[in-house]
Amino acid sequence: MTTSQDTSTHEQSPRRALRWLLTGLAGISLLVLITLSAISAALGTHSGSQWLLAQATGLVPDFRYENAEGTFLRGIDLYGVSYRSGDNLVRVEQLHSRWNPMTLMDGEFHLQSLRIAGVQVDWHSDPDAPAGPPLVLDDVLEPILPLPISVRLSNARLDGATINYDDFSYTISSLGLNVSLQGHTLNIQQLSLDAEPVTLTAELEVELQSPYALNGTVDWQLDNSLLEGTAAPNGHLSVDGDLDRLQIEHELSGLTDAESRGEVQLGLARLLNARSDSLDLQVDLEHTLGTQTLPGPGMEAFTVQALTLRTQGTPDDLGLFAAARLDIELAEDFVLETDLNLRAALRGSQLQIDELAMRTASGLLALVGDVNWSDGIAVDLNYELDEPAPGNYIPGLPESMVIQDLRSNGQVTFTQAAASASGEAGQMALAFNSDDLRATVNDYPLTGSAGFDYDGANWTVDSFALQTGENQLTLTASLNADNQINADATIDAPTLSVLYPDLEGRLRADAIVTGTLNEPAIDLDLIANNIVFGEFSIPELNMTGQNRGGMNEIELTTGNIQVPVGENTETISDVLLRLRGQPDAHNLLLRMNSSLVNLRLNADGSLANGGWQGRLLSSEIDSDYGLWQQTQAAELALAADQVTLNPLCWSMGDTRVCIEAGLSEGSQLDARIDLQNYPLTALNHVQSEQNIANLTDSDFHADNNATADVRLPFTLPPDMALQGYLSLQATAAGDISDLNGLDISVQTLSENGNLYLQSEPSADDIVEGELPEPAITHFVWSNISLDATQQAREWQLSSQLRFVQNDPDSTAAAMRGSADANIRMTESRGLNGNVRLDFDDLGWVEALAPQLANVTGTLEGRLNVDGTLEQPIIGSDILLSGADFQLPALGLNMQSVEISLSSDNSERFVLNGYAESGSGSMEFNSEILQPLSEERRMTLQLAGSDFVVADLPELSAAISPDLRATASMEGIDVNGRLLIPTVDARITTLPESAVDVSSDTVIVATEEDSDVRNAAQVNRGILSDIPLSGNIQLILGDSVNISGFGLNARLTGQLDIDQRPSATPLTYGELEVADGSFEIYGRTLNIERGKLLFMGSYDNPAIDIRAVRTVENMRVGVQMNGTIRNIRSSLFSTPALPDGDILAVMITGRPIAEIGSEQEGNALVGAVTSLGINQGQGITNQIQSQLGLDTFAINSRGDVNDSSLMLGKYITPRIFIRYAVGLFETENSLEIDYTVNDRVKLQATSGQSQSIDLTYTVEQ
């Protein structure tokens, strides 16, 4: 029984426990349900949220809000939130929040939005507050982290916050944040801050447990630039490490481009956990700067090629080590290359400079010293300069000035006491001293010393002196706090050549300044003697100046200055320059007299508003170009960025020129020039103008005598003169720094002008026995204009030329026509335009070519211009039609002349022509390729028939050419045939070049431009240096007749002329005398056979000539063989006769024995000489014997024209009479020789000159 009960009892216990458990769970569930219902009612309803806020306000008495909206379940908005603790206040105008409680089901609390606006924090520290326990961040975070759920905040934003902490005030314009916390990891996905003067964005990840690992990036930018001309600085920072030690990389842009990288030790984690009392900051960073120009105004000349700066240490002992390459542009195309090195240490408020050195290729400037700002500012620096070749770094230094071995050392100190308690700046002092300054100038030692100091009230310069050779400069000066100044400076340079070798002379200047800065008293005396600079010399120059009571007077006088002008030396006889007045009212007077120009100038003005403004009251310029006088006062203003010149006008008689200009904003130009009635006679050559005026009975200066002596340095060619006036107007506007962008307009005009040409009179105007007057051709133009404009970077050029001859009775040459041009040039120098010609009367050509007469015809055409200025493309269509003219010098009358020139571009021109002369005509066709390039070439075809080239009584000729020619820069090639159908030449005189010198003559030297006979023309081509080649067949027709000097012949034959480049032409062929005779000494010889055989040489053909005469039953003659330069003659007869009789019969018609007159004897001897007969000596002997003379000889002194016949006879054994008769010149002489004894001889001569000679002979 007991056993079963126990068993039942054990069975009921589990049931009872289960019942209790179920009952408990039901109660707990009910409680949770009731609690959740209560919480939901409190959080999810507006009234519940208001109740909770009221409870919070009760728990925090200093927390207040003005209004609330929303619920704690979805988000709540608060307005007018404030918290006050004593005098400290935190106020938020608006706070908006939104969250989703359902995210808790995923183990995350997500605050979807948080907006805070209008934050004002006013907080004051409590100096009496007891120090709290040190912060141990690990103890704060360890109980909290990790949270059971993650937390995420999105779209958090703060707009407008002002934080005032004691005297510190800071304003935040906006702050944006997206952040999450999971475990110990705080991840800031986005942080944006806009707080003047910087904006930044960042991404960071931080481990919230020691040592607080950190990595992320920060991008920042300042709102404004720090230096003018640079962009606002910005940078990119990357960090990696923890709060004790960080690795950083930073890139700086905007202000300059620099990179920094290295390690920063903070010790911040130890500080936050009370393991240290302060930050343990140490840096080891390297900063690099690439090639760039230093930023900031005035720094354009400094270019950093490479810079490296290393900073190592702590803030109390920071080492600075730098090396850089710096290029300094001292002048255009002149760069100083330097190396910079820095070793320094920053220890608290002191910078110790161990070395700051600038090194050039040869020199060194070094600074050492300290800068301390612990109590005010104290600077103490020593410098040392050593430069062996300083002249290498002085731009524009003349080669004649050599500066070497520049050395100096000294000290610079500066101190300023700390500001007083009231904020007043402390006393300042500055001193510079250099006791050792040395250099060598043109091998002369230069020594000097310098020093000045400022004690906060007084400036003193007591040791400034320079000396080289005998030249020295000294200066002492002082300025006290009351602006009282006392300065004395002296320059004494008796040997200026020491300073500048090309300069000679002596200079001394003394200046004394006393008084105050506002009212100084200044005395200046300067005198220079015997100044010589090249060909420029000043015997003496004096300048004096003084200032009293604000009135200044400076006067400079000099004279007898020698000035080289071109190849001449001109003299400035005297110069006076006087300046009187004050800066705000002064007068300038300039007077200069010289051999070139006399100048007078008077102006007044004032210095105001950073510039000068005044009036040019009067001016006068007197020179060979006229006497120009200013017509009225002109206002002139000069400033740094503005120049103004109101109309400034000069006149010379009726001629007037005015200039008006303005320059604003430093570069904006607005200018105008107006020239009216400038005389064209200024271009005339004086003698030519006078000659033409006398011949035309005209006065070129009748209407403006003031221009009679005006001549420009360049004149028209002689025998030409102009009469008329030229007017010009020009304007320019725009930026002078961009000349191509200026708006420019130029207009020139000349109306009713006259052109006179003087030439030799034509043959018809020459009257025998009277001195011929030159011919004057007079042209009149009605209008010549040229307009040019540049707008929108394009040039437009237009010109007009109008010749009109309305008076048919006028003696002026009839020139009727026009020439117009319109051409445009773009900014890229592209061309587009045309030129038009239209002349319906060509009579004016006679003035340009006096050899022509009765010229008629028309000239019209058009030139089209395209392409660029460097490579123009010219198309043309020009036609000369219906032209006739006469060429009196050749007796020609050219008719129906037609010439055309056409092209589509500049690469190919076609020139065609046709003309008639006599009964024949000729035409030509030519093609010119690339005429504007170095590869220009031309082809020509010339064809004609019986074209008359001369029609004079003494010469008439016609040709029938069929020639082809090509030409280029390499040479000219001519081929074809030239037929000469008719020639009728009657030669009465020979040109000088027809008489050649002997073939063995050697030209040693000749005067410049002297004529040399043909045989001396060695290796000289027909066209000078232009290579000529070709092959021409020359054919003589059946009517080629030549007569002259006793020769009458009709020629026939053919020659082949072969010309090779730079060689003598080769001629092959034969010319034959078909019919002919030769007359000598009144006797006619018939030419039975006459040939000229050309076998290469054109000027020395072989000859084969046989001439005969028949007298009664005798047939005598002469046979000539050899070459033109070496003729061999022989006599023959039938029947056979002695040579003397052959010649006598041929010349006189009788044998020698029958010659009875002296005239016949002279003729016979002349024939011997002129014909070069080989048997000449035998013939003269035969004549001597026949006449019974002791001497009978022919003397020839070089030229055959100097030959003479010598006849002599002994009267007694001691007296000999000699008589000489010129064979070709009408000269004779008589000589008598008297032999006194064997040693003494007396000789008397009478002829063109008379002389008596006594000869004494000594035998050894």
Automatic annotation (TrEMBL):
It is found in: Membrane. The chain crosses the membrane at residues 20-43. It is a single-pass membrane protein. InterPro entries: TamB_C (IPR007452). Keywords: Membrane, Transmembrane, Transmembrane helix. Residues 918-1259 form the Translocation and assembly module TamB C-terminal domain. This is Translocation and assembly module TamB C-terminal domain-containing protein.
